[in-house]
Amino acid sequence: MSKGLLAGAAAVAVLAAGSAQAASTELRRSADMRGLTFLVGGGVEGYTSALRDQIDPGLAYGVTVAIKPTNVLGVELGYTGAISEFNTGSVLATNANGPDIVRNGAQAAVTLGLTATPLQPYIMGGLGLSRYNVRAFAPGFQDDTVGNVPVGAGLRLHVGSFTADARVNYNFLFDQEFALTVPPSDVDLGGDETFSKGGRYVGTINVGATF
Fold first, then answer.
1. What is the b/e burial string over 161-190, where b = at least 16 CB atoms within 10 angstroms of the residue's CB?
2. Which of 33, 47, 108, 126 has the fewest Cβ atoms nearer than 10 Å?
């Protein structure tokens, strides 16, 4: 009887493995991983170094349009925005009617999938430009346009045409002249190129579709 039970258990295991493999194959076939992807999402944005003590983490949001000619390579164009408040313990600012700082920007990026599966980890890098609107009166802060280099990693899920994406990226700032109380460009790369020691981090969850 024990041999019969073992044989039955083995048969069930084989069937289960076969079913799982078939389901995985079907998911891969039905997933739209190539084509045009539209994503909208939101999350949190904050700053590092000296800016971390002056600006509290705030709400981040964005819209992304991506083209994937292959299952692993993608090119993105996106709108990125955020609203932030000053840390009142470090910055003497008047109350604004709404958020203290509003950032609106755009970026272009390339993504590279680490696998060709519907659940796909990936890395990304690109170039961006943001306009900072300082809405509260705060000595040492002003409106400014700042370039940035975003680098990061994420996890993307494709189920049919549905696409979900979780991403974390860090933005190296070319300068931080919207905050005059900290060094505008303090990392010398040689020649005329410099980066700010302070940067901006963003974590978002995005949902959309691939066609």
1. eebbbebebebbbbbbbbbeebbbbeeeee
2. 108
Q: C-alpha dihedral over 31, 32, 34, 35, to 10 degrees? A: -170
Contacts of 20 (CB under 8 A, 6+ apart): none
- Count Cβ atoms below 10 Å from residue 208 Cβ, excluding itself: 19
14 confidence band (pLDDT: 50, 70, 90)? very low
Q: Are 66 and 96 in contact (CB under 8 A)?
A: no
CB 115 within 8 A of CB 157: no
pTM of the model: 0.78
| Joined tokens for residue 153 | 């990693």
Q: Which two tokens stand for residue 50?
A: 């000296």
What does the DSSP 8-state code read for residue 40?
A: E
What are the pLDDT digits (tens) for 98-119?
A: 889 999 999 999 999 999 999 9
Contacts of 36 (CB under 8 A, 6+ apart): 65, 66, 67, 210, 211
Nearest of 120, 27, 127 to residue 70 by alpha carbon? 120
Token representation of residue 117: 């599966």
* Dist CA 141 CA 91 (whole Å): 10
What is d(CA 75, CA 16) in angstroms, rounded to the nearest whole number? 38
For 38-74, how does the pLDDT look when each residue is reduced to its tens digit (9 = 90+)?
999 999 999 998 889 889 999 999 999 999 999 999 9
